[in-house]
Amino acid sequence: MDPENREKALRERLERIDALERELKAKESAKKQVPLRLSSTLWTEIAAWAEEDFRSINGQIEYILTEAVKKRKGRGGP
Fold this sequence. Notes:
This protein is mainly alpha-helical. The protein has two domains: about 1-30; about 35-78, Orthogonal Bundle (Arc Repressor Mutant), CATH 1.10.1220. It is built from three helices and no strands. The chain has helices spanning about 5-30, 40-50, 55-75. The longest helix is centred in the N-terminal third of the chain and has 27 residues, at about 5-30. The chain is elongated and about 70 Å long.
């Protein structure tokens, strides 16, 4: 394969990879909404924790849940 065709093939391959990465990021960023009721005491604790970690309350709840799932998976799951 001559250098020009090789370069063209590589560019096309990079474009396909970029498109796949964009698609994956879009899927990962799709979030589900979950109504959640918390006691005022728990909300206050999470709010204080979120402020310490420079996160929103929603971000803190997501962080806590993500860490809980990681910990559970580390133990071998159900």
